[in-house]
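Bench log, entry 3. Co-assembly request; chain sequences pasted below exactly as received.
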Amino acid sequence: MYKLHGFALSNYYNLVKLALLEKGLPFEEVAVFPPAKPDFLQKSPMGKIPCLEVGTGRYLTETQVILDYLEETHPEPALYPEDPFGRAKVRELMRVMELYLELPARRLYPAAFFGGAVSEETRNEVRGVLEKARDALQKMAHFDAYLTGDTLTWADLAAVIHLPVVSLATRRVYGENLLATIPGVADYLERLRARPTVQTLQEAQNRAASQMFKRPS
Ligand SMILES: N[C@@H](CCC(=O)N[C@@H](CS)C(=O)NCC(=O)O)C(=O)O
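Structure output for the full assembly:
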């Protein structure tokens, strides 16, 4: 059985967990929190979460790598289109969401989620990157049924994990959700959130958030 190492408030962890749920694969969760301890560095040399144990002593890290491994080893239900161009377009969307939305938005997290501060310069710089990526996403994807057409792909799973976090961070830091202007995005995310797999994930996330809130500092 797969063992997924990490914690329920990590969006990358949640993306791999969602993949396992969507593929219907049994897995155990192993709680690991940063900073990485020496034994975790044996499994995930960069100390990154998630880490998927795919067999005894066999570990994989880097979310995209793990998702591709799961698709190759468990092709059904397929989460990439059949044709190579379609597959590349799905990866392109995932890359854009990760590199130009999720990662820049992380620079806002100290202020958005951890009671810290972010300089005016960072706020402005990040806003420019996020707005450009938002406009790109709007050109590259449809927010009708699914991002690339009428079937669910890996890009949709990435979107339902990453976009809400980016939205929330921007709402808290700029007083507005920078992604809200994408036509159809709210309904699109609402539809994806109705999936039983996403609801399972959300419940675990809510439990983890309330436990963290209770934890003495
Ligand atoms: N490129 C990595 C990013 C994963 C990542 O940044 N995970 C965060 C938790 S959401 C983490 O491990 N943070 C601890 C650290 O960077 O040391 C992936 O795709 O899996």
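The beta strands are 2-6, 27-31, 51-55, 58-61. The longest strand covers residues 2-6.
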